[in-house]
Amino acid sequence: MDIQNLLFSLFCFFFISLFLGHQQVVEGSRVSPFAFRPKKLFVFGDSYADTGNNRKDLASSWKFPYGITFPGKPAGRFSDGRVLTDYIAGYLGIKTPIPYRWRKELAGRLKYGLNFAYGGTGVFDTTVAEPNMTTQIDFLEQLLNDSVYTKRGLKTSVALVSLAGNDYSTYIARNGSAAGFPAFIGSVVNQLTVNLKRIHDLGVRKIAVSALQPLGCLPQSTARFSFEQCNGTENTLVDLHNQLLLQAVNNLNKETNSTSFFVLDIYNAFWNVFNQKEEHQVSTPTFENPFEPCCVGVSAGFSCGSVDEHGEKKYTLCSNPKSKFFWDTVHPTQEGWQAVYSTPALQNSLKQLW
Ligand SMILES: *[C@@H]1O[C@H](CO)[C@@H](O)[C@H](O)[C@H]1NC(C)=O
Ligand SMILES: *[C@@H]1O[C@H](CO)[C@@H](O)[C@H](O)[C@H]1NC(C)=O
Ligand SMILES: *[C@@H]1O[C@H](CO)[C@@H](O)[C@H](O)[C@H]1NC(C)=O
Ligand SMILES: *[C@@H]1O[C@H](CO)[C@@H](O)[C@H](O)[C@H]1NC(C)=O
Ligand SMILES: *[C@@H]1O[C@H](CO)[C@@H](O)[C@H](O)[C@H]1NC(C)=O
């Protein structure tokens, strides 16, 4: 290489460095080339996203030891601390939107959006008597009708839509088996698609919908294998859901001639975490056995937070929730969500926001 070439290479190197450096600054301050600056986050779905909508007298999320890490006491999140919603709001650079049930008491916070998600719900009615996703979207429509929000205001808004499988557990509970499951998966994704389109038609600019996590790897399924192994049958069904969802999202973007819709790849994000090995990872948390939960009922019929009629606790709690990926038999810990959020799969998904 002669000196001219060398200088040219060096020049290119500096130029690229400058350019990349600039890109990073731009990303850090959340200014995109299209100047989309999200101001509000609207959240729909279930316990992976609920930050306190569930009724205090019914939901485990309001019982000790839920919330012990954040905010330090039970406050309606299905975790020891923060959940997906908190990390997405953080990414957008806005405060976590308040739960819908507190819209009157905390009206000053409406400017960050609202969280309509209720633990236990699905696109169809489930075993909990909480509003399904259709009704959650009705709540936003009502607030638009009441001029609490404007269609114009929604143009700078993002929606997070979480569907973590309550339709499927309800189906199995009602039907006793997984027979007829593929057809049911089709109808769940169809209903979800209708819901996503409605959120778009209300005026929300960007809509992130979660892929289904590997259900067969939740402690409720791995318990049978001493928390060592996932249920492959369940994960195969999850694959079908996720394939149909991706197709549906692509079609929605075509139909609306937009890039409004995108999938948050929670599925591969969970796998990224499960496959992490201690020695290769420094920046993201790792977990000894990611399938083993922190807080579990002492026997069937009891769950995390259960107490008997004498107030005697009927669950065991690990000594350090930070060392566990799962909090209870279905929900990640705060550390778990932090790890999911930090994965390449999730970070790459989030780039579609810009
Ligand atoms: C959602 O709930 C409402 C109110 O209970 C009900 O009328 C509607 O049929 C439900 N929607 C779906 C898709 O299950
Ligand atoms: C909002 O207003 C529209 C138009 O008047 C109406 O069709 C719709 O039912 C209203 N939605 C709710 C949730 O009240
Ligand atoms: C149970 O599965 C069968 C077989 O596909 C299906 O026809 C039926 O609708 C399901 N029942 C319920 C309650 O979902
Ligand atoms: C795996 O999950 C399916 C569907 O829930 C269930 O029918 C089956 O018994 C599970 N397999 C094992 C080995 O637990
Ligand atoms: C889709 O959007 C692009 C860019 O905004 C525009 O150039 C094109 O004409 C649109 N196509 C249709 C079919 O609306």
From TrEMBL:
GO BP field: lipid catabolic process
Signal peptide: 1-28
Assigned keywords, A-Z: Hydrolase, Lipid degradation, Lipid metabolism, Signal
GO MF, any single term: hydrolase activity, acting on ester bonds
Protein family according to the UniProt entry: Belongs to the 'GDSL' lipolytic enzyme family.
Protein name as annotated: GDSL esterase/lipase At5g03610 isoform X1
Gene: LOC111311738
